[in-house]
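The freezer alarm interrupted the setup, so I double-checked each line after restarting. Inputs confirmed:
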Amino acid sequence: KAGVTQTPRYLIKTRGQQVTLSCSPISGHRSVSWYQQTPGQGLQFLFEYFSETQRNKGNFPGRFSGRQFSNSRSEMNVSTLELGDSALYLCASSPDAGPGTEAFFGQGTRLTVV
Amino acid sequence: DAKTTQPTSMDCAEGRAANLPCNHSTISGNEYVYWYRQIHSQGPQYIIHGLKNNETNEMASLIITEDRKSSTLILPHATLRDTAVYYCIVRGSNAGGTSYGKLTFGQGTILTVHP
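Predicted 3D structure, all chains:
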């Protein structure tokens, strides 16, 4: 069974631009969560989608948004990029949104803002 | 979600058991204990999770105390490839039942396995 696939793996953008990252969950998984990892703040929760609905959102500005499609694939978008948005962005998928089900992570997208 | 406390770092000799402790004294009845690890710049890898009973899989064992206020992850025969940051996470639902999908990561324990 294929794992969680994130594309692209690496990305370089300029301040002020916008970026879209993609996540394909494990087949059959309906819950997708996004995380940002930086050296200073560690792993922080961005948002979670389940059956195309955002169920939970972390403490990030409105420049960070996401969506989930009917096939459970998810995208996150960051507009008006800032240098501080440089980070590893991770996606995790779960069969459902229950607390007793494991979440599996992709390898992440490394975003560098210059 | 309940807060967890882990030692900042630990060392272990190759071939020996690595026992990683975690305190979660404010855990509530419906919250699970999860363990993940992250090897440098890779995505976190799921290890094991449990609610009340001890759990074992091909990677590790999870021992949860009877009062559920602490747990220990055991890697029975540590290898050099087990060197990673290990995260203990408590995961459950909030009053509205909507925080299931959220994993709250702390700083974790840096486990170094040496020859």
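Quick read of the result. Chain B touches chain A at residues 30-32, 34, 36, 41-46, 49, 51, 87, 91-93, 98-107 (CB under 8 Å).
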